[in-house]
Amino acid sequence: MRAAPFTPMNATPLAVPDNSPEGVYTRGAKAAREWWRVSLSERANMFRIEHGHGEDGAGQVDIDTVVDLDNLEAKLLKWRREGFVSAADHEDEARAAQVGSAFAADLQRAAQAAREAREAARSLSSAQRTVRIGNVDMPVSTDSSDANAALVPRINDAYLFTPRADDIALDIVENRRVMLIGHTGSGKTSFVEQVAARTGHGVLRVNMNGQTTVGDFVGFWTVKGGETLWVDGVLPVAMRAGYWLIIDELDFAEPSILAVLTAVLEPGGKLLLKERGNEIVTPHPSFRLFGTANAAGAMSAYRHLYQGANLLNEAFLDRWRVYLFDYLSNDEEAKVLLRTLPALTPALAHTLAAIAADCRAAFAREDLASAFSTRRLLDWAELMLRTGDAELAAAPAIYSKVSAEDAALIRSIIRHHAIFDAAPDGQPAA
Ligand SMILES: Nc1ncnc2c1ncn2[C@@H]1O[C@H](COP(=O)(O)OP(=O)(O)O)[C@@H](O)[C@H]1O
Ligand SMILES: [Mg+2]
């Protein structure tokens, strides 16, 4: 069979589906504007390309040639790399910018409305005393029992609420489950304790890295004086009395404990005590549940630093608001040092904060096996003020707690700062 001769009339259109290459590709503006124009050639399956400067398609054409599809595709790629954009792309961009700004504006309006609704709801119950944490007014506990008072943590006046505190404080007010993740000593547990201290809520803590069993957590039967008694575990105790429960190192919890927890994580979630004839424990309105973890979620990359940590699955994590706690910044940590130990000078405090930051960086690089917590830093600084000797103070506060290799590296970091941070005007070196 003889193929029909190609003419522009019977040339089948090229298979360039939605994305026709025809059109003008431009870069630059005004006098610097440069363009390529692509159109179908009169020759079948070929494209005409023209090049010029100035207004699209107008003005002097300095290149005018015909290429096949392969050649054209190579040119399209090259133009894209050189910053040429098609009119269709320009339109898409403009539309995206418009949609984007409309979305952002809508969101701002919606968030404002939500804020007003929240404030209105709160002023209805304004009979309740509140205390300000960061920028949030948090209700103070109405439980005046001795049992609660005995469990309220002591206020640490040196505790610094960083900007991250606001969102978490609101979550607590709204009775959300809050999980704090971050390296050891980054202030996860003390955050919850210090909020509880200021709002007068009793706190119970349980650590999953150890021998915590489902029995400890949920409760167990025991025999006392010939009688069989049920002893509530820490979870039902907190739920009934309305205490705040901190579950530390959740990523070490055994699966049976996570299974029990999951039910309680739902808003208003009840606990079913199967062992006690299916008794249902309804949470007291003041009950709050917090988890802390070193290596869950966004911290999973550090699991090798926390031997034995389990990966918490996404379905479990989705039942929490999860906040990533970083160590305090150098300035924040220096501030905490000065608040805790007013005898320190700002220059000393900044140098100590810089030493801690260097040790943490070494820990993250796995050059150090031991983490450097704010607690350790505070303890070392306190001892330093007593001995007047940083090295001497470092022995019981740091060196004796870590391996010989770690001690050697920390010692070299300390010496480096002790020598190079001492600026003549007494200000910390940059
Ligand atoms: N924002 C902060 N302000 C003051 N001290 C802090 C702060 N964050 C941490 N610390 C200190 O660090 C110590 C260790 O914090 P902690 O809450 O136990 O850490 P984590 O639970 O993350 O291991 C606390 O006892 C406290 O002295
Ligand atoms: Mg902790």
From TrEMBL:
AAA+ ATPase domain ranges (all copies): 174-326
Q: Which Gene3D superfamilies match?
A: P-loop containing nucleotide triphosphate hydrolases
Q: Where is this region: Disordered?
A: 1-22
Q: Which InterPro entries match?
A: AAA+_ATPase, ATPase_dyneun-rel_AAA, CbbQ_C, P-loop_NTPase
Look up the domain of life of the source. Bacteria
**Record keywords, A-Z:** ATP-binding, Nucleotide-binding
Name the PANTHER family on file. MIDASIN (PTHR48103:SF2), MIDASIN-RELATED (PTHR48103)
Q: Which family does it belong to?
A: Belongs to the CbbQ/NirQ/NorQ/GpvN family.
Q: What is this protein called?
A: Cobaltochelatase CobS
Q: Which organism is it from?
A: Paraburkholderia tropica
